[in-house]
Amino acid sequence: MPPILCQVCKKNIATVHLTEIIKGKKREIHLCEECAGKKGVAFKSHQFSISDLLSGLANTQAAQEIAKMSQIKCPICGLSYLDFRQHGRLGCATDYTVFKEGLMGLLEKIHGSTEHMGKIPASSGETREISKELLELRQELKRAVEKEDYEKAAGLRDRIRELEEGGHGDA
Amino acid sequence: MEMRELANSPGEWLKGTGSASDVVISSRIRLARNLVQFPFLSRASDEQKRRILEIIRDHLADIPVTSKLTFVDLTKTDPIDRSLLVERHLISRELADGDWPRGAAFAETETMSVMINEEDHLRTQVLRSGLELADTWHQIDQIDDALEEKLDFAFSAQLGYLTACPTNVGTGIRVSVMLHLPALVISREIEKVFQAVTKVNLAVRGLYGEGTQASGDFYQISNQRTLGKSEMQIIENIESVVPRIVEYEKIARDKLLVENRPALEDRVWRAYGQLRAARTISSEETLHLLSAVRLGVNVGLITDLSIASINQLLIHTQPAHLQELRGEPLDPEERNVERATYIRSRLTNGKQ
Fold first, then answer.
1. B81: how many CB neighbours lie within 10 A of its CB?
2. With contacts defined as CB-CB under 8 Å, which chain B residues touch A112?
3. Do the Cβ atoms of A119 and B230 come within 8 Å?
4. For the segment A43-62, what is each residue's pLDDT rounded down to a tens digit?
């Protein structure tokens, strides 16, 4: 048998070969040791079938993440992470912090980003603690770096430091 | 403003003015915001929803840019009036059909509206005729600034404005442009447009937004991503795509005129004839025929009708509008008769 690439990471050579028979249909899955290790628990507990694994990396990640996070509940609104995954709606602003670990991957998938680059209110929520100006400068810095305008970036970085040390306080 | 007045009024954004208005019906931008001191809608009690409604209503009345809006408590509004607001694109179907404390406010010109306790506590929208996104953004940005002076919105430095659904987080912006693309549909090129649009992370939807089918060749193109880009970048993305679709549609129209003129003329005139002759007609068929007539006006085949009057017919022939005009509920068959009568009265007097 020629070397087969791991079906999960698609990088390493698969060394773990599994066969599952569902309704008379044979399916094979090939994994590298690392990925097999990550799924190991799942196989033993039969929580995830091969079809879950085959349906792609995104799904297995989601399944793992749900399993890990299903116990978490928001202390403010009482929403559980499982509720969120079932209905797709969050219960309060704090959920974004409480479910952060699960949400970041999702946001990356939906938006291709996890960082706000838009409008900043003059005084709302976190802008109470961090000044609007500082947040705007940080966005500008990100844009300058993206455009490889390092001269501008250096200027912005100095300005940000000044502001941060000047008591505007970035906790 | 009374609902009956609204049903009779032309609606500013339907007047068929603005850039590229032969193809672009309207430009719309909405912003989603939540009050920091309350849970999102799905976890808020009715008492909390009532408080949210009161707070936002009071602030709208307080702020110069919104003080002249007509406020509607939707729990006290009858279903036909609520549907009327949906047909006018002033509120969503979800908000109209809800059974919790909720409200809406809109400007007399209908170019601006606010939904309270929809999926988010506050959804503000600005609507314009034609392709006018920069102007639309400028206006909604100012309204948002004014609201923010009084209201504390849920905001995080990393994730921006926090919304009930993660698909709206960040800017909370939905920019959509309604297009009329009959020639691309006739020449079967529309699929190519969809593919190109999807590649740049934009979505294509029907006349009434999310979850609706495109009918009568009317399509809405909107952004899907709300995080990681500034509002202007999101707008510029749509602004760079729409003129190309407009151009593509115009080329397809010209091509139909040159290569298939008899078939195009036949389609347009038959549609016009059917609308002027029909005694009972469904809203689906109306949209379909109005689309052909609109195309006929745009390419110069029909000269005694204005785009504004066709745009208005598109909205005024919807079920709630007909019932509002008649002043009583009508069953679907009665509506079809009423619709045909209404269309005849509007199309047989010649110029509108």
1. 20
2. 201, 225, 228
3. yes
4. 433 344 444 444 444 555 66
Assigned token pair, B28: 């719309």
On whether the CB atoms of residues B220 and B204 are closer than 8 A, the answer is yes
Closest Cα in chain A to B201:
A111
How far apart CA B224 and CA B71 sit, in angstroms, is 30
Q: Are A96 and A109 in contact (CB under 8 A)?
A: no
Rounded to two decimals, what is the model's pTM? 0.81
Residues of chain A in contact with residue B226, where contact means CB-CB under 8 angstroms, are 111
Residues in chain B closer than 8 A to A144 (CB atoms): none
How far, CA to CA in Å, does B138 sit from each of B44, B127, B252? 32, 12, 33
Three-state secondary structure call for residue A75: coil
C-alpha span between B29 and B177 (Å, rounded) = 9
pLDDT in tens, B186-202: 999 998 998 899 899 99
- At B69, give phi and psi (nearest 5°): -70, 150
| Cβ contact, residue pair A119, B227, below 8 Å | no
If pLDDT is split at 50, 70 and 90, which confidence band does B286 have?
very high
Strands (E), B169-260: 173-180, 202-205, 218-223
The DSSP result for B142-176, as a single string, is: HHHHHHHHHS-B-EETTTEE--SSGGGTBT-EEEE
Residues with pLDDT less than 70, chain A: 1-2, 19-26, 38-66, 123-130, 166-171
Token readout for B191 is: 């699929």
ipTM for this model: 0.88
B296 CB-near residues (< 8 Å, 6+ apart): B268, B269, B271, B272, B302
Q: How far apart are CA B352 and CA B350, in angstroms?
A: 7
Contact partners, residue A135, CB within 8 Å, separation at least 6? A120, A127, B157
One-letter identity of residue A124: S
Question: Residue B156 and residue A87: Cβ atoms within 8 Å?
Answer: no
Cβ–Cβ < 8 Å for B99, B105: no
Decide: helix, strand or coil at residue A40: helix
